[in-house]
Amino acid sequence: MVSERFAIAIAEIIVYALLLPISLFITIRHGISKSSGYLPLCIFCCLRLSAAGLGIASENDGYTNRANLVWSEILGSVGLSPLLIAGVSLITRVNKNSIPRSSFRTNAPRVLHLFNVLALALTIAGGVLLSSYKDSRQRS
Q1: Tens digits of per-residue pLDDT, 3-17?
Q2: What are the E-state strand segments in the chain?
Q3: Are 59 and 3 in contact (CB under 8 A)?
Q4: Burial class of 41 by CB neighbour count within 10 A (0 to 12, 13 to 18, 19+)
Q5: How much is the pTM?
Q6: pLDDT band at 140, cuts 50/70/90?
Q7: Cβ(61)–Cβ(68) under 8 Å?
Q8: Which residues, including other chains, have CB under 8 Å from residue 83's CB and lie 6 or more apart?
Q9: Per-position b or e across 68-79, b if 16+ CB within 10 A of its CB
Q10: What is the pLDDT of residues 33-63, one digit of tens each?
Q11: SS (H, E, C) 26-40
């Protein structure tokens, strides 16, 4: 019997393995630049594939190696950051061509980028602290 977590990880691998070549093609076609927003989609697909692979590895180990499970969860949550960066980059690209440069709306995505970087740092720090806390409790 296959567990739900294993089935979801397999489905994620199938979906993101299909989406990665498409996002790579779009990224190469439109160019790799900071404001294009397509490169973070490639990074998003790679992080999701890594998280699903580590989830399968932890399932196959019978959850004896907690590091795989912890890194799977961290990469799964950090994987949302490139998706948010891609969305903000696409909004910036649209604003650049449609709104005068002195407008507040052209500078608003920069503020969103700062919040995104802060959220990414907090997610990584929280995941690492949580794993070290769980490890210290298991040793006691």
Answers
A1: 888 899 999 999 999
A2: none
A3: yes
A4: buried
A5: 0.70
A6: low
A7: yes
A8: 40, 41, 44
A9: bbbbbbbbbbbb
A10: 655 678 888 888 999 999 999 989 888 887 6
A11: HHHHHCCCCCCCCHH
